[in-house]
Amino acid sequence: MHEIAIFGAGRIGSVHAANIAAHSMCNLAGIVDPDFEAADRLAGAYGTEVRSADSVFGDVDIEAVFIVSATDTHADLIEVAARAGKQIFCEKPVDLSVARVKDCLAVVDTAGVQIMVGFNRRFDPDFSELRKRIHVGEIGTLELLSIISKDPVPPSLKIAEASGGLFRDMTIHDFDMVRFLLGEEPIAVSVTASCQVDSAIGALSDVDTAVVSLRSASGKLAVIVNSRRATYGYDQRIEAHGSNGMLSVGNRAESSLVRADADGITGSKPLYFFLERYALAYRAELDCFLEGLESGKMQAPNGVDGLAALVLAEAAVESLAAGREVKLD
Amino acid sequence: MHEIAIFGAGRIGSVHAANIAAHSMCNLAGIVDPDFEAADRLAGAYGTEVRSADSVFGDVDIEAVFIVSATDTHADLIEVAARAGKQIFCEKPVDLSVARVKDCLAVVDTAGVQIMVGFNRRFDPDFSELRKRIHVGEIGTLELLSIISKDPVPPSLKIAEASGGLFRDMTIHDFDMVRFLLGEEPIAVSVTASCQVDSAIGALSDVDTAVVSLRSASGKLAVIVNSRRATYGYDQRIEAHGSNGMLSVGNRAESSLVRADADGITGSKPLYFFLERYALAYRAELDCFLEGLESGKMQAPNGVDGLAALVLAEAAVESLAAGREVKLD
Amino acid sequence: MHEIAIFGAGRIGSVHAANIAAHSMCNLAGIVDPDFEAADRLAGAYGTEVRSADSVFGDVDIEAVFIVSATDTHADLIEVAARAGKQIFCEKPVDLSVARVKDCLAVVDTAGVQIMVGFNRRFDPDFSELRKRIHVGEIGTLELLSIISKDPVPPSLKIAEASGGLFRDMTIHDFDMVRFLLGEEPIAVSVTASCQVDSAIGALSDVDTAVVSLRSASGKLAVIVNSRRATYGYDQRIEAHGSNGMLSVGNRAESSLVRADADGITGSKPLYFFLERYALAYRAELDCFLEGLESGKMQAPNGVDGLAALVLAEAAVESLAAGREVKLD
Amino acid sequence: MHEIAIFGAGRIGSVHAANIAAHSMCNLAGIVDPDFEAADRLAGAYGTEVRSADSVFGDVDIEAVFIVSATDTHADLIEVAARAGKQIFCEKPVDLSVARVKDCLAVVDTAGVQIMVGFNRRFDPDFSELRKRIHVGEIGTLELLSIISKDPVPPSLKIAEASGGLFRDMTIHDFDMVRFLLGEEPIAVSVTASCQVDSAIGALSDVDTAVVSLRSASGKLAVIVNSRRATYGYDQRIEAHGSNGMLSVGNRAESSLVRADADGITGSKPLYFFLERYALAYRAELDCFLEGLESGKMQAPNGVDGLAALVLAEAAVESLAAGREVKLD
């Protein structure tokens, strides 16, 4: 049994707590959160206890930590955890600064521990099947990837302010999907974007609607279409176009009921948001982490993947500001 | 914690064992099966032990039993269990004989215990949602129910022989769905059927392809279309047609991937068979059983429902033999 | 150029007039209708003239007549036309009485002319493609045919009274489709039906909702599901289930626009009724008739097909009344 | 009756000839083409005659000309036609040079005749319905337009050489759709593109796979995804995302047949190419032109629209070369 403690008792912390508690290969060894009440509620729900950070890091029985707290705490916690010899799962992003992420990963490296970054979409059954089928050549040579990725509702102002902006907060998942599926690293990023959904986002010099184009060395293209609001729910679709055909993954509906009446033929909306759409993915993500613990070799997405997606996000920010394509080294 | 023992370590026994073991409100208290090896394997997988029937019935800590063994053992086990004061879950059918089922339910009644019959499809999220939406009047007055229900492959000869025939074995689920959804009891059954899939089935004087029509007192109609083989997988669809529109539930696909190429636009097949399609339903069925234990009031489908579906199956057998509509009392 | 006159200036007469007028191989030689105003309107629209029946039958330049007038005039007109040596297209049904149809076809035979009966659905591109693909063995051996056939609105009382009832008026098209697709003649018919849509229909001792099952000598099954009302439009779907798979034809939507919003994912309704859904079929039907004129060999559906479908309709009437399966000779 | 002559007896000339010949409001007054054989074939098919350009321009009975010849002949023919007082329909593009188009439109203006440019997609029933529904506010404020536009096969080398490149030849249609649907003029264009389909295209310094992003003054975004090859047929889809929902138009399938078998659930491909997909659009386009003749006021798309789309294409060429967003005045 792998003993795992969680830092962060919020919405996503609850998801991980439930999965860890239910998994036959691991044990939920405690919850850490400055908000004691939240930590206590979550600990109570899964029969574990509230712990202090020090108590977790000092406990030799705890093998791994899930860092799913506020973004600005990730890097510090990773470094302390690494020095304490803990294996690490960290929600994206590792940090909002590329430099800080590099430092942080160096510490992890030195400590000889492993880190997995929570790019949950890689573990969605449809997307991982998509990758498999692209890679076995089902559509010949992949030429063009289209990712539609829209949230149902914009973030609160507070969350938007701390988010690092659309590209570091939301598009970062799509950047990771491009890297996951394209089979080559992007070498150039180009952005067209605006603020149309919520003027408060614009007041932060941020955007809420964007088209991001990417290009690989061999000329493969990818396009990401983002909006911070889709009244019909979480819109998460991918099309992979190749020399021999196209593979696409659509949204997953809340139910398969369809009503036909005088107003038309109406099916249900997509699952509401990431907690619903990626419920299976979060479970498979934990499986992957546990396999990494067992084998001593963490499969992607690791720290390097976390860094690479952030580098693309920074390039997007720069492209928007400069009105030109930004090349990556 | 409700202590529950399982009679039957076969395929469906494994499903129930997994759900009981994982549920926070009950405990898996043992597996009973004449095939010791199978029982041992299953017990081992979920950290419980192989028990004898006597030991289960004599154990006052065991509150309930799941009877999911061979059909011809159901009635006897139900009676013994009832007399031992156990709450009972029984897979369909209770028995292949209407008379035997009536006797059996009388014993249950006398013993003052409750029985739930495993009509799993009622617990499918889409079908239960369908019922709710019919009943709130979303399509006005329900007039016509169409149930398409086909298995991916015919049963083995051995299973077919013991099954009681298509109507008692397979259509019985659809009869229950008619009762579940129609809002009125069927008063007449009419069958057109033949043996086209497997001549071995015909040699048993059984059929493998059937159209069954039903009628309620007020004139509501239902039609069930059955085949013992669908090369594209388990075909489980329902359409409810009413005065203000139609509600339909389609199959659930193995994945949402779609390939477009020179051969056309190809999506994945429906989930393969009942274990896959009704995985969620089996879990919700257990929830319902546990609620019945908690409240002391077992919600349908109970013994009466098990009997009613069997009566419809007998009427179907009679209709096929006589070439006419059979009326129910 | 084949000169063709039309008897009947109603809705369906207008469809045929438009197609004949636009076709490069024929010429619209006149309209006959006791309602002079209607005839005049139609003649004017397509640059032809109102004619009397005698003038048409006596005109040696007129090679063929389209009999698309009221049902109770069909048989008489066919006989006169046949005796006048005209080639005949007649809307279904030839007559509501099997005996009368037989007499009528004998006259046609004696006269040595040809007759085509307007089973328009055979000429729907999807249904004719369906037949082709069944017949080349794409789904192995055909075992089971499901036809869903619902009108958007019930007929007016006047039309219902003259219609001969649901089976002779509406189901007759579906009976023809069964014969068209099944590859074997039905030998037994079984009906479950009721009046749920309009009590005025029930007052005529007619039904408006029905399930009709058919069986061929080798055991192939077909089921027809009828309703006189579908609030979402004309519902015309067919599923053909075979030993190697299933082929299905769905409804054709008014447009391909789909709206996604907080209420769900809504596509447009099926095309409203037969004029819209079978517009292409009526054109292809004319092509077939003209080919029959050219080749001297009328392809099905001919008079025998018209008779066979009516025989099935009579069997359905009898099955409903007797509450049993009716066998055909 | 409007007398119309056609310049150009190629594939698209045949489409227009058929529509003009069949239309009740106009007459096909002759075919002009340096390839006499092609002209003769087409004239013969529709009962008209081969004419010289001079004879057409000098014929006072001819009111309008359809210029559907090779692109490099358009501008000259437009000018001569305008000076001869003919009303003009011209296939896109008017010319490959913005300067030449401006000169040409000045001549048209001076001559006081009208010109319509053949942006056929505006007349597709689904796309014109889409526009209507966007404009009545069905999805609130339009924020983001996604156009997927892929040809089934790349052009021949000869055609590619004369085409003016992907943006002037193929994307120009999509630029027009952006202008047609967005409700605001684009003010900036940004391109990411490569040659992946056919290296012969790359040898012409052209691209065959592209992502084009556009932005309007108020921040509305549009993205066009192009490929010169889609093995599954002509891919023509549009999504319009607004503050209250999304409207989308999908491909139209060759048939509505669906096969379910052990390989999955397979529907037919989209209609093969523009002649098939836009058959209805070409007819509606002619209606619009004739209404322009009748009313004396040509509705869009006119010469200004032809110019505006070409300006966007030039901006795309520049953006690709410069690696930056190009702003329009």
Give a verbal description of the structure.
The structure is a homotetramer of 329-residue chains. The first copy, chain A, has 329 residues and is an alpha/beta fold. The relative contact order of chain A is 0.15. Chain A has 12 helices and 14 strands. Chain A has helices spanning 11-22, 36-45, 53-57, 71-83, 98-111, 125-135, 157-162, 166-182, 199-203, 274-277, 279-295, 303-322, and strands at residues 2-7, 26-32, 64-67, 87-90, 115-117, 142-150, 186-194, 209-216, 221-227, 235-242, 245-249, 257-261, 264-267, 326-327. Chain A starts with a strand and ends with a strand. The longest helix of chain A is centred in the C-terminal third of the chain and has 20 residues, at 303-322. The mean pLDDT of chain A is 96. In chain A, the strands form 3 sheets. In chain A, strands 11-10-6-9-8-7-14 form a 7-stranded mixed beta sheet. Chains in contact: A-B, A-C, A-D, B-C, B-D, C-D. Chain A binds chain D through residues 141, 143-144, 146, 148, 150, 188, 190, 192-197, 209-211, 213-215, 219-221, 223, 225, 227, 229-232, 235, 241, 243-246, 322-325, and chain D through 141, 143-144, 146, 148, 150, 188, 190, 192-197, 209-211, 213-215, 219-221, 223, 225, 227, 229-232, 235, 241, 243-246, 322-325. Strand 11 (245-249) of chain C pairs antiparallel with strand 12 (257-261) of chain D, so a sheet runs across the interface.
